[in-house]
Specification:
82% of the residues lie in helices and 0% in strands. It is built from 18 helices and no strands. The protein starts with a helix and ends with a helix. The N terminus is likely disordered.
Protein backbone atom coordinates (compact mmCIF):
# COMPACT_ATOMS: atom_id res chain seq x y z
CA UNK A 1 0.00 0.00 0.00
CA UNK A 2 2.84 2.40 0.85
CA UNK A 3 4.44 1.79 -2.52
CA UNK A 4 1.20 2.71 -4.34
CA UNK A 5 0.73 5.88 -2.29
CA UNK A 6 4.25 7.00 -3.15
CA UNK A 7 3.73 6.25 -6.81
CA UNK A 8 0.45 8.17 -6.87
CA UNK A 9 1.75 11.37 -5.24
CA UNK A 10 4.45 13.94 -5.81
CA UNK A 11 7.23 14.57 -3.32
CA UNK A 12 7.99 18.13 -2.25
CA UNK A 13 11.06 18.10 -4.49
CA UNK A 14 8.99 16.98 -7.46
CA UNK A 15 6.39 19.69 -6.80
CA UNK A 16 9.09 22.37 -6.72
CA UNK A 17 10.55 21.03 -9.96
CA UNK A 18 7.12 21.06 -11.62
CA UNK A 19 6.62 24.68 -10.49
CA UNK A 20 10.03 25.67 -11.87
CA UNK A 21 9.35 24.13 -15.28
CA UNK A 22 5.94 25.83 -15.35
CA UNK A 23 7.56 29.16 -14.49
CA UNK A 24 9.98 28.68 -17.36
CA UNK A 25 7.19 28.04 -19.89
CA UNK A 26 5.34 31.08 -18.51
CA UNK A 27 8.35 33.29 -19.21
CA UNK A 28 8.83 31.84 -22.69
CA UNK A 29 5.12 32.08 -23.42
CA UNK A 30 5.02 35.74 -22.42
CA UNK A 31 7.95 36.50 -24.71
CA UNK A 32 6.37 34.63 -27.63
CA UNK A 33 2.73 35.71 -27.38
CA UNK A 34 2.99 39.32 -26.20
CA UNK A 35 3.77 40.54 -29.72
CA UNK A 36 0.16 39.71 -30.68
CA UNK A 37 -1.10 42.53 -28.47
CA UNK A 38 1.50 44.98 -29.82
CA UNK A 39 1.13 44.63 -33.60
CA UNK A 40 -0.34 48.10 -33.96
CA UNK A 41 2.32 49.77 -31.79
CA UNK A 42 5.24 47.95 -33.46
CA UNK A 43 3.96 48.61 -36.98
CA UNK A 44 3.45 52.32 -36.26
CA UNK A 45 6.79 52.78 -34.49
CA UNK A 46 9.04 51.13 -37.08
CA UNK A 47 6.99 52.06 -40.14
CA UNK A 48 5.60 48.74 -41.39
CA UNK A 49 2.10 47.47 -42.12
CA UNK A 50 0.13 45.42 -39.58
CA UNK A 51 0.35 42.43 -41.94
CA UNK A 52 4.17 42.76 -42.03
CA UNK A 53 4.21 43.04 -38.25
CA UNK A 54 2.20 39.81 -38.22
CA UNK A 55 5.25 38.05 -39.70
CA UNK A 56 6.90 38.55 -36.30
CA UNK A 57 4.36 35.98 -35.10
CA UNK A 58 4.64 33.60 -38.06
CA UNK A 59 8.43 34.05 -38.31
CA UNK A 60 8.85 33.13 -34.63
CA UNK A 61 6.70 30.05 -35.13
CA UNK A 62 8.49 28.93 -38.30
CA UNK A 63 11.91 29.31 -36.65
CA UNK A 64 10.62 27.41 -33.64
CA UNK A 65 9.28 24.62 -35.83
CA UNK A 66 12.38 24.24 -38.01
CA UNK A 67 15.10 24.94 -35.47
CA UNK A 68 13.72 23.09 -32.45
CA UNK A 69 13.80 19.49 -33.69
CA UNK A 70 17.23 19.76 -35.29
CA UNK A 71 18.84 21.60 -32.38
CA UNK A 72 17.12 19.37 -29.80
CA UNK A 73 18.37 16.26 -31.58
CA UNK A 74 21.90 17.66 -31.73
CA UNK A 75 22.03 18.94 -28.12
CA UNK A 76 20.37 15.91 -26.50
CA UNK A 77 23.79 14.30 -26.02
CA UNK A 78 24.90 17.01 -23.58
CA UNK A 79 24.22 17.18 -19.84
CA UNK A 80 20.81 18.77 -19.30
CA UNK A 81 21.62 20.97 -16.29
CA UNK A 82 24.32 23.22 -17.85
CA UNK A 83 22.55 23.06 -21.20
CA UNK A 84 19.32 24.43 -19.71
CA UNK A 85 21.17 27.31 -18.03
CA UNK A 86 23.08 28.23 -21.21
CA UNK A 87 19.89 28.25 -23.24
CA UNK A 88 18.05 30.40 -20.69
CA UNK A 89 20.95 32.88 -20.82
CA UNK A 90 20.67 33.05 -24.63
CA UNK A 91 16.91 33.54 -24.25
CA UNK A 92 17.56 36.54 -21.98
CA UNK A 93 20.04 38.00 -24.48
CA UNK A 94 17.52 37.59 -27.31
CA UNK A 95 14.92 39.58 -25.39
CA UNK A 96 17.45 42.31 -24.60
CA UNK A 97 18.21 42.67 -28.32
CA UNK A 98 14.45 42.85 -29.02
CA UNK A 99 14.14 45.60 -26.43
CA UNK A 100 16.94 47.58 -28.11
CA UNK A 101 15.75 46.94 -31.69
CA UNK A 102 15.02 50.00 -33.79
CA UNK A 103 14.35 48.29 -37.10
CA UNK A 104 12.18 45.44 -38.33
CA UNK A 105 15.24 43.43 -39.40
CA UNK A 106 16.89 43.46 -35.98
CA UNK A 107 13.63 42.72 -34.20
CA UNK A 108 12.86 39.85 -36.57
CA UNK A 109 16.37 38.37 -36.14
CA UNK A 110 16.21 38.54 -32.34
CA UNK A 111 12.81 36.86 -32.40
CA UNK A 112 14.23 34.03 -34.52
CA UNK A 113 17.01 33.33 -31.99
CA UNK A 114 14.56 33.51 -29.09
CA UNK A 115 12.20 31.12 -30.90
CA UNK A 116 14.75 28.35 -31.45
CA UNK A 117 16.05 28.56 -27.87
CA UNK A 118 12.51 28.53 -26.48
CA UNK A 119 11.72 25.42 -28.48
CA UNK A 120 14.67 23.45 -27.13
CA UNK A 121 13.96 24.62 -23.57
CA UNK A 122 10.36 23.47 -23.86
CA UNK A 123 11.42 20.06 -25.19
CA UNK A 124 13.97 19.61 -22.40
CA UNK A 125 11.38 20.65 -19.81
CA UNK A 126 8.99 17.97 -21.05
CA UNK A 127 11.76 15.37 -21.05
CA UNK A 128 12.81 16.27 -17.51
CA UNK A 129 9.21 16.02 -16.32
CA UNK A 130 8.82 12.62 -17.99
CA UNK A 131 11.97 11.32 -16.29
CA UNK A 132 11.34 12.78 -12.84
CA UNK A 133 7.59 12.29 -12.28
CA UNK A 134 5.55 9.18 -11.36
CA UNK A 135 3.73 7.65 -14.33
CA UNK A 136 0.27 8.25 -12.91
CA UNK A 137 1.05 11.94 -12.39
CA UNK A 138 2.61 12.61 -15.79
CA UNK A 139 -0.61 13.83 -17.48
CA UNK A 140 -1.23 16.38 -14.73
CA UNK A 141 2.40 17.55 -14.62
CA UNK A 142 2.66 17.81 -18.41
CA UNK A 143 -0.61 19.79 -18.39
CA UNK A 144 0.79 22.07 -15.66
CA UNK A 145 3.95 22.77 -17.69
CA UNK A 146 1.80 23.66 -20.68
CA UNK A 147 -0.17 25.81 -18.22
CA UNK A 148 2.82 28.12 -18.14
CA UNK A 149 1.84 29.22 -21.63
CA UNK A 150 -1.76 29.62 -20.44
CA UNK A 151 -0.70 31.79 -17.50
CA UNK A 152 1.40 33.82 -19.92
CA UNK A 153 -1.82 34.65 -21.76
CA UNK A 154 -3.57 35.44 -18.46
CA UNK A 155 -0.90 37.65 -16.90
CA UNK A 156 2.12 38.16 -19.14
CA UNK A 157 0.42 39.14 -22.41
CA UNK A 158 -2.09 41.63 -20.92
CA UNK A 159 0.64 43.17 -18.74
CA UNK A 160 3.05 43.38 -21.67
CA UNK A 161 0.32 44.82 -23.89
CA UNK A 162 -0.54 47.43 -21.27
CA UNK A 163 3.11 48.45 -20.92
CA UNK A 164 3.57 48.52 -24.69
CA UNK A 165 0.50 50.67 -25.31
CA UNK A 166 1.00 53.16 -22.49
CA UNK A 167 4.81 53.32 -22.34
CA UNK A 168 6.68 51.61 -25.18
CA UNK A 169 6.76 48.17 -26.78
CA UNK A 170 10.52 48.25 -26.10
CA UNK A 171 9.73 48.25 -22.36
CA UNK A 172 7.68 45.10 -22.83
CA UNK A 173 10.76 43.19 -23.97
CA UNK A 174 12.77 44.58 -21.07
CA UNK A 175 10.08 42.98 -18.90
CA UNK A 176 10.47 39.59 -20.62
CA UNK A 177 14.26 39.83 -20.22
CA UNK A 178 13.81 40.49 -16.49
CA UNK A 179 11.46 37.52 -16.19
CA UNK A 180 14.14 35.45 -17.92
CA UNK A 181 16.71 36.45 -15.29
CA UNK A 182 14.32 35.35 -12.53
CA UNK A 183 13.75 32.01 -14.25
CA UNK A 184 17.53 31.56 -14.65
CA UNK A 185 18.20 32.07 -10.95
CA UNK A 186 15.46 29.69 -9.81
CA UNK A 187 16.43 27.06 -12.40
CA UNK A 188 20.05 27.21 -11.29
CA UNK A 189 18.94 26.32 -7.76
CA UNK A 190 16.21 23.78 -8.48
CA UNK A 191 16.95 21.79 -11.64
CA UNK A 192 18.40 18.33 -10.91
CA UNK A 193 22.07 18.04 -11.82
CA UNK A 194 22.22 14.29 -12.41
CA UNK A 195 20.00 14.14 -15.49
CA UNK A 196 21.18 11.60 -18.04
CA UNK A 197 21.44 12.49 -21.71
CA UNK A 198 20.60 10.52 -24.84
CA UNK A 199 23.51 8.85 -26.62
CA UNK A 200 21.75 8.32 -29.94
CA UNK A 201 22.96 10.02 -33.09
CA UNK A 202 21.31 12.92 -34.87
CA UNK A 203 20.23 10.48 -37.57
CA UNK A 204 18.57 8.20 -34.99
CA UNK A 205 16.73 11.15 -33.45
CA UNK A 206 15.43 12.45 -36.77
CA UNK A 207 14.39 8.94 -37.84
CA UNK A 208 11.19 9.47 -35.87
CA UNK A 209 9.87 11.32 -38.88
CA UNK A 210 10.14 8.13 -40.97
CA UNK A 211 7.20 6.58 -39.08
CA UNK A 212 3.82 7.39 -40.71
CA UNK A 213 1.91 7.10 -37.41
CA UNK A 214 4.07 9.76 -35.79
CA UNK A 215 3.72 12.08 -38.78
CA UNK A 216 -0.06 11.63 -38.71
CA UNK A 217 -0.25 12.40 -34.99
CA UNK A 218 2.16 15.32 -35.42
CA UNK A 219 -0.25 17.16 -37.71
CA UNK A 220 -3.25 16.89 -35.37
CA UNK A 221 -2.10 19.76 -33.10
CA UNK A 222 -0.75 21.59 -36.14
CA UNK A 223 -4.19 22.01 -37.68
CA UNK A 224 -5.97 22.42 -34.33
CA UNK A 225 -3.81 25.37 -33.25
CA UNK A 226 -3.75 26.89 -36.74
CA UNK A 227 -7.53 27.17 -36.53
CA UNK A 228 -7.25 29.32 -33.43
CA UNK A 229 -4.28 31.38 -34.63
CA UNK A 230 -5.89 32.22 -37.95
CA UNK A 231 -8.10 34.43 -35.76
CA UNK A 232 -5.93 35.10 -32.69
CA UNK A 233 -3.04 36.64 -34.64
CA UNK A 234 -5.38 39.49 -35.58
CA UNK A 235 -7.30 39.60 -32.32
CA UNK A 236 -6.31 43.22 -31.63
CA UNK A 237 -7.74 44.67 -34.88
CA UNK A 238 -10.80 42.42 -34.43
CA UNK A 239 -11.38 43.85 -30.96
CA UNK A 240 -10.79 47.44 -32.05
CA UNK A 241 -12.33 47.52 -35.53
CA UNK A 242 -15.03 44.84 -35.56
CA UNK A 243 -16.18 44.71 -31.94
CA UNK A 244 -15.76 48.50 -31.62
CA UNK A 245 -13.93 48.25 -28.30
CA UNK A 246 -11.59 51.22 -27.54
CA UNK A 247 -7.84 50.56 -27.61
CA UNK A 248 -7.50 51.27 -23.90
CA UNK A 249 -9.61 48.19 -23.15
CA UNK A 250 -7.73 45.74 -25.39
CA UNK A 251 -5.45 44.57 -22.57
CA UNK A 252 -8.53 43.88 -20.42
CA UNK A 253 -10.06 41.72 -23.15
CA UNK A 254 -6.77 39.83 -23.53
CA UNK A 255 -6.68 39.35 -19.76
CA UNK A 256 -10.18 37.85 -19.90
CA UNK A 257 -9.11 35.66 -22.82
CA UNK A 258 -6.18 34.37 -20.80
CA UNK A 259 -8.38 33.74 -17.77
CA UNK A 260 -10.77 31.62 -19.85
CA UNK A 261 -7.84 29.69 -21.30
CA UNK A 262 -7.06 28.45 -17.77
CA UNK A 263 -10.20 26.34 -18.10
CA UNK A 264 -8.66 24.92 -21.28
CA UNK A 265 -5.58 23.76 -19.41
CA UNK A 266 -7.68 22.22 -16.62
CA UNK A 267 -9.68 20.30 -19.22
CA UNK A 268 -6.44 19.17 -20.91
CA UNK A 269 -5.35 17.19 -17.84
CA UNK A 270 -8.79 15.60 -17.49
CA UNK A 271 -8.96 14.65 -21.16
CA UNK A 272 -5.46 13.11 -21.12
CA UNK A 273 -6.07 11.03 -18.01
CA UNK A 274 -7.99 8.31 -19.86
CA UNK A 275 -8.08 7.60 -23.60
CA UNK A 276 -7.70 11.23 -24.60
CA UNK A 277 -7.50 10.62 -28.34
CA UNK A 278 -11.00 9.13 -28.35
CA UNK A 279 -12.34 12.37 -26.84
CA UNK A 280 -10.31 14.73 -29.04
CA UNK A 281 -12.05 13.49 -32.19
CA UNK A 282 -15.25 15.23 -31.11
CA UNK A 283 -13.66 18.10 -29.21
CA UNK A 284 -12.13 19.42 -32.43
CA UNK A 285 -15.59 19.44 -34.02
CA UNK A 286 -16.81 21.60 -31.13
CA UNK A 287 -13.80 23.86 -31.65
CA UNK A 288 -14.69 24.22 -35.34
CA UNK A 289 -18.23 25.30 -34.47
CA UNK A 290 -16.94 27.89 -31.99
CA UNK A 291 -14.40 29.35 -34.41
CA UNK A 292 -16.97 29.58 -37.20
CA UNK A 293 -19.48 31.25 -34.87
CA UNK A 294 -17.34 34.39 -34.87
CA UNK A 295 -18.42 34.96 -38.48
CA UNK A 296 -21.96 35.57 -37.22
CA UNK A 297 -21.11 37.33 -33.93
CA UNK A 298 -18.30 39.67 -34.99
CA UNK A 299 -20.74 42.53 -35.67
CA UNK A 300 -22.03 42.41 -32.09
CA UNK A 301 -19.75 43.37 -29.21
CA UNK A 302 -21.12 41.05 -26.52
CA UNK A 303 -21.78 38.08 -28.82
CA UNK A 304 -18.35 38.50 -30.41
CA UNK A 305 -16.68 38.52 -26.99
CA UNK A 306 -18.52 35.31 -26.07
CA UNK A 307 -17.20 33.60 -29.21
CA UNK A 308 -13.66 34.76 -28.40
CA UNK A 309 -13.84 33.52 -24.80
CA UNK A 310 -15.19 30.13 -25.94
CA UNK A 311 -12.27 30.05 -28.39
CA UNK A 312 -9.94 30.52 -25.41
CA UNK A 313 -11.49 27.57 -23.58
CA UNK A 314 -10.68 25.28 -26.52
CA UNK A 315 -7.14 26.42 -27.32
CA UNK A 316 -5.10 24.09 -25.07
CA UNK A 317 -7.43 21.11 -24.49
CA UNK A 318 -5.33 18.85 -26.74
CA UNK A 319 -1.85 19.57 -25.36
CA UNK A 320 -1.38 16.96 -22.64
CA UNK A 321 -3.05 14.20 -24.67
CA UNK A 322 -0.97 14.86 -27.77
CA UNK A 323 2.28 15.22 -25.81
CA UNK A 324 1.83 11.86 -24.10
CA UNK A 325 0.51 10.23 -27.27
CA UNK A 326 3.54 11.26 -29.34
CA UNK A 327 5.97 10.19 -26.62
CA UNK A 328 4.22 6.80 -26.36
CA UNK A 329 4.48 6.33 -30.14
CA UNK A 330 8.16 7.30 -30.02
CA UNK A 331 8.73 4.80 -27.21
CA UNK A 332 7.41 2.04 -29.48
CA UNK A 333 9.22 3.05 -32.67
CA UNK A 334 12.47 4.70 -31.50
CA UNK A 335 13.10 4.61 -27.71
CA UNK A 336 16.49 6.34 -27.99
CA UNK A 337 14.85 9.48 -29.41
CA UNK A 338 13.06 10.39 -26.19
CA UNK A 339 14.32 13.97 -25.92
CA UNK A 340 13.51 14.59 -29.56
CA UNK A 341 10.02 13.15 -29.07
CA UNK A 342 9.50 15.66 -26.26
CA UNK A 343 9.89 18.46 -28.78
CA UNK A 344 7.27 17.22 -31.23
CA UNK A 345 4.15 18.73 -29.64
CA UNK A 346 5.53 22.27 -29.20
CA UNK A 347 7.05 22.06 -32.69
CA UNK A 348 3.71 20.95 -34.15
CA UNK A 349 1.94 23.73 -32.25
CA UNK A 350 4.32 26.35 -33.61
CA UNK A 351 3.95 25.07 -37.15
CA UNK A 352 0.25 25.49 -36.52
CA UNK A 353 0.81 29.04 -35.27
CA UNK A 354 2.84 29.81 -38.39
CA UNK A 355 0.20 28.25 -40.64
CA UNK A 356 -2.63 30.02 -38.85
CA UNK A 357 -0.98 33.44 -38.83
CA UNK A 358 -0.03 33.03 -42.51
CA UNK A 359 -3.56 32.02 -43.47
CA UNK A 360 -4.86 34.91 -41.40
CA UNK A 361 -2.53 37.32 -43.20
CA UNK A 362 -3.75 36.11 -46.59
CA UNK A 363 -7.37 36.48 -45.53
CA UNK A 364 -6.84 39.99 -44.14
CA UNK A 365 -4.87 41.05 -47.22
CA UNK A 366 -7.49 39.79 -49.68
CA UNK A 367 -10.72 40.04 -47.73
CA UNK A 368 -12.12 41.17 -44.41
CA UNK A 369 -11.54 40.16 -40.81
CA UNK A 370 -14.85 38.30 -40.56
CA UNK A 371 -13.66 35.64 -43.04
CA UNK A 372 -10.94 34.56 -40.60
CA UNK A 373 -13.57 32.62 -38.66
CA UNK A 374 -14.63 30.04 -41.22
CA UNK A 375 -11.02 29.46 -42.34
CA UNK A 376 -10.12 28.71 -38.72
CA UNK A 377 -13.12 26.40 -38.38
CA UNK A 378 -12.06 24.42 -41.45
CA UNK A 379 -8.58 23.86 -39.97
CA UNK A 380 -10.16 22.48 -36.76
CA UNK A 381 -12.26 20.04 -38.81
CA UNK A 382 -9.08 18.76 -40.48
CA UNK A 383 -7.61 18.14 -37.00
CA UNK A 384 -10.74 16.18 -36.09
CA UNK A 385 -10.39 14.03 -39.22
CA UNK A 386 -6.76 13.22 -38.39
CA UNK A 387 -7.73 12.33 -34.82
CA UNK A 388 -10.41 9.95 -36.13
CA UNK A 389 -7.82 8.23 -38.35
CA UNK A 390 -5.26 7.92 -35.52
CA UNK A 391 -7.84 6.51 -33.13
CA UNK A 392 -8.99 3.97 -35.72
CA UNK A 393 -5.40 2.83 -36.30
CA UNK A 394 -4.89 2.49 -32.53
CA UNK A 395 -7.93 0.22 -32.27
CA UNK A 396 -6.69 -1.83 -35.22
CA UNK A 397 -3.27 -2.23 -33.57
CA UNK A 398 -4.89 -3.39 -30.32
CA UNK A 399 -7.02 -5.96 -32.14
CA UNK A 400 -3.94 -7.26 -33.96
CA UNK A 401 -2.03 -7.54 -30.68
CA UNK A 402 -4.90 -9.45 -29.07
CA UNK A 403 -5.02 -11.81 -32.04
CA UNK A 404 -1.27 -12.47 -31.86
CA UNK A 405 -1.41 -13.25 -28.15
CA UNK A 406 -4.76 -15.00 -28.31
Amino acid sequence: MTRNINEDSLSTKQKILAFTLTLLTFVMGTSEFVIVGLLTEVSTDIGITVVTAGTLVSGFAIAYAIGTPVLTAFLSRFSKYPLMLILIAIFILGNVVSALAGTYTILFASRIVTAVVSGVLTALSMSIASDAMPKVKKPAVIASIFAGFTIANVLGVPLGTFIGQFASWHMTFWLTALLGVIAFIISMLVLPRNLTSSKSSLKDQLSLFTHPRIILAFFIPTFAISGTYTIYTYITPIIENELAIPTRYVSIVLLAYGAFSIISNFLAGKIASKNGMRKLRFIFIIQAVILTSLYFTMSFTIAGLISIMLMAIMIYVMNATIQLYLMDLAEKHSPTAKDFASSLTPVAVNIGIALGSTLGGLVVATGSLEHLSWVGGLAALIASGLAFISYSLDKKDKRSEITRHG
